[in-house]
Amino acid sequence: MAINKKLLSLLFLLAAVLSSSAIAASFSDSDSDSDLINELVSLRSSSESGVIRLDDHGISKFLTSASTPRPYSMLVFFDATQLHSKSELRLQELRREFGIVSASFLANNNGSAGTKLFFTEIEFSKCQSSFQLFGVNALPHIRLVSPTIKNLRDESGQMDQSDFSRLAESMAEFVEQRTKLTVGPIQRPPLLSKGQISILISLIVIATPFVIKRILKGETLLHDRRLWLSGAIFIYFFSVAGTMHNIIRKMPMFLQDRNDPNKLVFFYQGSGMQLGAEGFAVGFLYTVVGLLLAFVTNVLVRVKNLNAQRLVMLLALFVSFWAVKKVVYLDNWKTGYGIHPYWPSSWR
Amino acid sequence: MGGKAESGNASPKSESMAAKKASPDLLNSLSFKSLKLKTKQQELLIRVSILGLVYVLAFIARLFSVLRYESMIHEFDPYFNYRTTLFLTEKGFYEFWNWFDSESWYPLGRIIGGTLYPGLMVTAALIYWTLRFLRFFVHIREVCVLTAPFFASNTTLVAYFFGKEIWDTGAGLVAAVLIAICPGYISRSVAGSYDNEAVAIFALLLTFYLFVKAVNTGSLAWALGSAFGYFYMVSAWGGYVFIINLVPLYVLVLLITGRYSMRLYIAYNCMYILGMLLAMQIRFVGFQHVQSGEHMGAMGVFLLMQVFYFLDWVKYQLNDTKLFQTFLRITVTSAILVGGIALGVGTASGYISPWTGRFYSLLDPTYAKDHIPIIASVSEHQPTAWSSFMFDYHILLFLFPAGLYFCFKRLSDATIFIVMYGLTSLYFAGVMVRLILVATPAVCLISAIAVSATLKNLTSLLRTKQKVPQTGSTKGAGSSKVSSKVSLDQSQPFQKNGAIALLLGAFYLLSRYAIHCTWVTSEAYSSPSIVLAARGAHGNRIIFDDYREAYYWLRQNTPTDAKVMSWWDYGYQITAMGNRTVIVDNNTWNNTHIATVGRAMSSYEDEAYDIMRSLDVNYVLVVFGGVTGYSSDDINKFLWMVRIGGGVFPVIKEPDYLVNGEFRVDKGASPKMLNCLMYKLCYYRFGELVTEYGKPPGYDRARGVEIGNKDIKLEHLEEAYTTSNWIVRIYRVKPPTNRL
């Protein structure tokens, strides 16, 4: 922190000096340009994945007070910690992807091309005035400030929704289109690091003989029938609830009603689609009825108390009836089909 | 049962004869006894007649499509199958086997004999030849149309025997009834859906049944039968990969849970080795059984089986347990090591091919979406929502968990198999809608176990209660015997009225199932999709027969060597019905070629013209639903053309066709969209047309918007034909202008 503060005050000093001497020292442009670049490079090398964290001073120094055309473009990511909890904005995910693009750019551009583009971020709570300067009032927002732009409110460099829809890949495409620089192949960090993989493998290798021994003795969890049964029921539930659909399509659990934001929509009308909670609710109903049937015919009969038996059975019958009715009703509503029997035409 | 109990009480026969006059009760017992012989016959009679009725039911339920439309081939793939079957019956088997088709995938062509599963065609041709031999002169099309219902009927028989094998005859009967009308199966086997799945589900279930039978009996004959069933399956459908992975997995589970037996050894080894050798005779499959990663699991389990057998033998030879333990450790470790090294070397040297994309997309469901748009684009490859399960299984879904519970209560080699089959296939059904079909037999069987076991318990309970007052003095002995017979559960204290309520509930559910199935078959699954039906404003039926109109126009009005370009969905139909050469078709074997067509469709007209010239295209065919409101037309498929085209040619970029991530065709659409070839061809002259009262001209009914570009001029193409409802539009590609 201390170093940071020092650095910042240093920056501030430099900025003040530069701005005061800006008019006088226009001939020394190339000098100050290389200074700025050197500073940016050193800032970049000290920050994680090459994304420079700027504040109001940094913005004024590197963007507003630097004379155009600046020798570099700057890609600014607008972040707000207080909005991280709103998952539909995907701020954290986008920030991560932004970092990946930046790291890939750094890794693929070593020479002079590497100093033509800098990845920066500013945080709302610390740099509100910069947000105003850019005229940003909605997030997520990513802006490319090209060398010639004077007025920061100029929104031509804004990255569209569609440009970060495919995350790092489309961001890189956007950058390549606008700056004519090459970002190169996106380098994502592997899911497990090499160290973790080797530890996992060695653990598995060590465990194998013990597992084999236990299997041969026949005393593992694998021989517990109840475990298998619950596993089987779980797979069943997992499939019929349409969980795969939710995973593949990345469906949310529920939606907000468009007309009335306070209302939540849990059920989606239309047969090919479903929401997350909807699938689980119906899957639960399926499973309950099936298990009740098994329970009534296999467990309940062992209960000694006749009255308890009758009561539970009535309850089970009622619950199953209600569940079946509900599911059939929901299905008809969702698919829009009205299923009815065919009677002989003479009966009508 | 009551009768038997009583006769057991009056043991010596002569005694009972002497006491005949004295006791009417004993007279009763005698008549019961003479009935007893008949009961068995009666039971057999009832069983056979139920099976016969189910057989007929399975067939006639699938005839809705013929009644509502006409006897014709449905959808897309069946047209290819029909065309090849026709070729087979006309030219004979060898010509068929060596057929090089120059009419599709122009200019590449396609080796038909080596790239199809011939099982379906050969089956239909055999039926056709048999009928002709019996002097029934039917048209080959009728045979093709009715092949699927015929095999569905056969499947019910297999389901009966399978149910009998894993539980009892009652479960078998219920399974046969359930599968006969289950919508999940009917959707792929109505009359006219002449597709590989029609015979493949029969083959699949037959193979599984014979294998389970082989495991239960340990007989070589059943294992041999199972190998032949597998051969038939391999010849009929690519889904055989499911068998060759499920069976080894099953064997592995049996090994792990300590259920290894000589029966298993015989069944698996015979089935695997013979099945593999037989499967290699199918050219399309070839040496995949020893070379492809998808089949390596089966081979691994085969080798593991030998290790188990060897260890068993050594254990028998060695009496010293300590020595055996060391030996065991060394053998198992070295076996795993050798197997791993062999697999690694095989994969690294390229001898064993890695898994294909389709296989990956089953294990990691998000794979296809990111990597293979051509798989993800097909509507039947979409993931399944709960409503599709409900639609295709109805009450079977409720019964399935109960069935699972019953299976676990009475665990045997056979029930383990059906549980594994049910769970794996249900998982796959969740990943892809079309795989509901594979899961259907298992769901039917497991649900049948639940139904049959429950009904059996309840009815036998009702019967005992009725008998109890009659038998009077022999009550104790009788009921104890009955209860030991019924001993599936300890249903003794269960009340009669409770049982009746449960029974009524069960019958109510089953009748709902029958109603649901009939309705779904008749309204949802009998549409041929080549002839479209809609309800008019007055509730009357309107038929759109535009597809056939267009294809017959092609057949009669274009030169015989004309090349037609269309999106790949319509390739099979154009070759089969229009008899013209196509650039791409539903056999999506060459992604680049399809991407070229996608690129042409999504480029500006002059760029597309160069591509079409290079492919010698004479006609372009597009499907358009703007007039009729038909929603699965080319404009709605257009984004996939862009995606697939862009996957190979990066000049095509999806964002160019979208506005703020949204796909639009109205005034707000992106300029690239408004001027690409597909847009122009679909909406040419559409701006003049009033489609709906009270709406401006050029109102697209499929998307519910007014189109954005009403003034479309074509430069290199000209309209050749538009069908009566504008569903199919055909354009002629003009020859290059004379430069002199």
Helix-strand blueprint:
The complex is a heterodimer of chains A (348) and B (740).
Chain A: H1 2-20, H2 29-46, E1 51-53, H3 56-64, E2 73-79, H4 91-108, E3 117-123, H5 128-134, E4 141-145, H6 167-179, H7 194-217, H8 225-240, H9 243-249, E5 255-256, E6 264-265, H10 276-298, H11 306-335
Parallel strand pairs in A: 1-3, 2-3
Antiparallel strand pairs in A: 2-4, 5-6
Chain B: H1 2-9, H2 13-18, H3 24-61, H4 64-68, H5 77-91, H6 93-97, E1 100-101, E2 110-111, H7 119-133, H8 140-166, H9 169-181, H10 183-186, H11 196-217, H12 220-236, H13 240-256, H14 262-279, H15 288-291, H16 296-317, H17 321-349, H18 357-363, H19 367-371, H20 373-376, H21 386-393, H22 396-409, H23 413-431, H24 436-471, H25 475-485, H26 496-523, E3 532-535, E4 541-544, H27 546-557, E5 563-565, H28 571-578, E6 581-582, H29 591-602, H30 605-614, E7 619-623, H31 634-648, H32 671-675, H33 677-683, E8 699-700, E9 705-706, E10 717-722, E11 728-733
Parallel strand pairs in B: 5-6, 5-7
Antiparallel strand pairs in B: 1-2, 3-4, 7-11, 8-9, 10-11
Helix pairs in contact in B: 1-3, 1-25, 3-8, 3-9, 5-7, 5-28, 7-8, 8-9, 8-11, 9-24, 11-12, 11-14, 12-14, 13-16, 14-16, 16-17, 22-24, 23-24, 24-25, 24-26, 27-28, 29-30, 29-31
Could you walk me through the main structural features you see in this protein, from its secondary elements to its overall organization?
Chain A: Keywords: Endoplasmic reticulum, Membrane, Signal, Transmembrane, Transmembrane helix. Helices cover 53% and strands 7% of the residues of chain A. By secondary structure, chain A is an alpha/beta fold. Chain A folds into three domains: 32-179, Glutaredoxin (3-Layer(aba) Sandwich), CATH 3.40.30; 191-220; 224-335. A four-stranded mixed beta sheet of chain A has the order 1-3-2-4, with helices on both faces. Chain A has a two-stranded antiparallel sheet with strand order 5-6. The termini of chain A are far apart. Chain B has 740 residues and is mainly alpha-helical. In chain B, strand 5 (563-565), helix 28 and strand 6 form a beta-alpha-beta unit. The model of chain B is unreliable at 1-23 and 467-493 (pLDDT under 50). Chains A and B meet through helix 7, helix 8, helix 9, helix 10 and helix 11 of A and helix 17, helix 21, helix 22, helix 23 and helix 24 of B.
